[in-house]
């Protein structure tokens, strides 16, 4: 089996080594010749360089490949994807060939590209998660599309991806560019879970005065049970790291958090589709808030610093609240995927989606089994519901900021207690005659139900 790979950055290089190790013959290209050399020497060190061929241009790549060709792109999302596609067309790819965009591309670009290239070659999309380590030893692979070319490469990718209980974490999750949508939402959930763990840490550190070591030990205890997850375990590890003069590493790091854009896209798409994912949106804005603390705009509205208050936290209650809040972050992401799938007619399979997240990716967690049980997975968690309410209240009392914890409690409360939309309906109709809908399902105006003599001006 032979595949080509364009783009030998961190992800490309590691995926290349994984592909060759699993027995594939790889033709690889990067516009920077050093990247090709680097890959070749790594492959030599690992003893499988005979299955790797580095080419110095795309025409050579296209010439060398057996037809029909299978080409993977691991180039930065954006214009570069189209640039490489155009060059590959010039180099001679044809309608029988498949080109799979494996970067963190926007799914909207994927849809447009499918149309743009439909008479040139098969354009398919696949989101890959797991960072460098995952790419090297087994990532999560969220592929999409019904292109015939997939049939040639799927058996191979099933081996290259991570696996859980013997089942591969590669799946074609749905139609069109839904693989990139699913990967985007994966990242949206990733933002929320990272921020949630940071908030639990913050509450324990500043609200309860615990040390980094104590918090790491608590996270380790949680990890021994059902809360075991990749993000919780790396957080505990980070909290245990010290510099050479024994200062905790975490205390040396500035508050600004970068972002490549997938979290923002998740929030934008949710808002456009009208699907509520408040925890995911709050996580994106948590980065905005902390990043703008010393910008000009913020400085013009400086508020005097306030002292947080100490709070007493029941650690078992905190564990339960964290458990439910984590489940609710996935629940929101899945609702977004379901809604988008319905709007775009992608037929996304949520069970397959969850299978791709089960190992290899950043949001892998043992409690995904619980989520895979289906919609009712939260209904039995009554103690956790009370715990989330209590912990959210304790957190607010500390005076510190907990955007995701608070948004998640609000999300759950909105879905499970009476809502307050009736007064907002009435307000809209009062000033704009937008109409109201009664409990009986009748659409009318306030004036049909009551006499309004004079409106408030
Ligand atoms: C993954 C990661 C990966 C990357 C994020 C970082 O699944 O392997 O999500 O895609 O590390 O894009 O995203 P931000 O830079 O936006 O935090």
Automatic annotation (TrEMBL):
Catalytic activity: 6-phospho-D-gluconate + NADP(+) = D-ribulose 5-phosphate + CO2 + NADPH
Pathway the protein contributes to: Carbohydrate degradation; pentose phosphate pathway; D-ribulose 5-phosphate from D-glucose 6-phosphate (oxidative stage): step 3/3
InterPro entries named among the record's database cross-references: 6-PGluconate_DH-like_C_sf, 6PGD_dom2, 6PGDH_C, 6PGDH_Gnd/GntZ, 6PGDH_NADP-bd, NAD(P)-bd_dom_sf, Pgluconate_DH
Residue intervals of the 6-phosphogluconate dehydrogenase C-terminal domain: 179-443
Pfam families: 6PGD, NAD_binding_2
Keyword Oxidoreductase: yes
A molecular function GO annotation: phosphogluconate dehydrogenase (decarboxylating) activity
Gene3D superfamilies assigned: N-(1-d-carboxylethyl)-l-norvaline Dehydrogenase, domain 2, NAD(P)-binding Rossmann-like Domain
E.C. designation(s): 1.1.1.44
Keywords of the record: Gluconate utilization, NADP, Oxidoreductase, Pentose shunt
Top EC category: oxidoreductase
Transmembrane segment boundaries: none
Keyword Lyase assigned: no
Subunit structure: Homodimer.
UniProt function note: Catalyzes the oxidative decarboxylation of 6-phosphogluconate to ribulose 5-phosphate and CO(2), with concomitant reduction of NADP to NADPH.
Family: Belongs to the 6-phosphogluconate dehydrogenase family.
Stated name of the protein: 6-phosphogluconate dehydrogenase, decarboxylating
Lineage, top ranks: Bacteria, Pseudomonadati, Pseudomonadota, Gammaproteobacteria, Alteromonadales
Gene: gndA
């Amino acid at each position: 089996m032979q595949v080509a790979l364009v783009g030998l950055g961190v992800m490309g290089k590691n995926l290349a080594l994984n592909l060759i190790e699993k027995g594939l013959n790889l033709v690889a290209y990067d516009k920077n010749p050093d990247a090709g050399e680097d890959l070749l020497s790594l492959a030599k060190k690992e003893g499988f360089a005979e299955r790797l061929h580095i080419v110095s241009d795309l025409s050579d790549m296209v010439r060398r490949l057996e037809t029909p060709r299978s080409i993977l792109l691991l180039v930065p999302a954006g214009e570069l994807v189209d640039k490489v596609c155009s060059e590959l067309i010039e180099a001679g790819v044809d309608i029988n060939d498949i080109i799979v965009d494996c970067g963190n591309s926007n799914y909207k670009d994927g849809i447009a590209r499918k149309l743009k290239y439909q008479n040139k070659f098969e354009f398919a999309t696949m989101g890959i998660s797991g960072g460098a380590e995952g790419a090297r030893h087994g990532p999560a692979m969220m592929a999409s599309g019904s292109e015939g070319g997939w049939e040639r490469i799927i058996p191979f990718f099933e081996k290259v991806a991570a696996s859980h209980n013997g089942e591969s974490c590669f799946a074609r999750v749905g139609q069109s560019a839904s693989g990139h949508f699913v990967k985007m939402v994966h990242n949206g959930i990733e933002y929320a879970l990272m921020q949630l763990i940071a908030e639990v840490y913050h509450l324990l550190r500043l609200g309860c005065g615990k040390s980094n070591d104590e918090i790491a030990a608590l996270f380790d205890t949680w990890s021994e049970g059902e809360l075991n997850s990749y993000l919780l375990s790396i957080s505990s590890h980070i909290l245990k790291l010290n510099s050479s003069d024994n200062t905790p590493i975490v205390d040396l790091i500035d508050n600004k958090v970068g972002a490549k854009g997938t979290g923002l896209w998740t929030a934008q798409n949710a808002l456009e589709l009208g699907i509520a994912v408040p925890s995911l949106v709050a996580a994106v804005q948590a980065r905005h808030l902390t990043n703008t603390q010393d910008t000009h705009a913020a400085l013009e509205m400086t508020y005097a610093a306030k002292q947080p208050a100490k709070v007493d936290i029941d650690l078992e209650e905190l564990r339960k609240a964290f458990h439910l809040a984590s489940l609710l972050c996935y629940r929101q992401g899945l609702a977004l995927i379901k809604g988008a799938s319905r709007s775009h007619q992608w037929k996304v399979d949520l069970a397959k989606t969850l299978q791709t997240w089960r190992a290899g990716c950043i949001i892998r967690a043992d409690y995904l089994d619980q989520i895979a049980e289906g919609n009712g997975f939260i209904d039995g968690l009554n103690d956790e519901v009370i715990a989330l309410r209590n912990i959210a209240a304790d957190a607010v009392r500390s005076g510190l900021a907990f955007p995701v914890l608070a948004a998640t409690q609000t999300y759950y409360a909105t879905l499970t207690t009476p809502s307050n939309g009736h007064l907002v309906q009435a307000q809209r109709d009062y000033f704009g005659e937008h109409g109201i809908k009664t409990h009986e399902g009748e659409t009318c105006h306030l004036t049909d139900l009551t006499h309004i003599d004079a409106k408030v001006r």
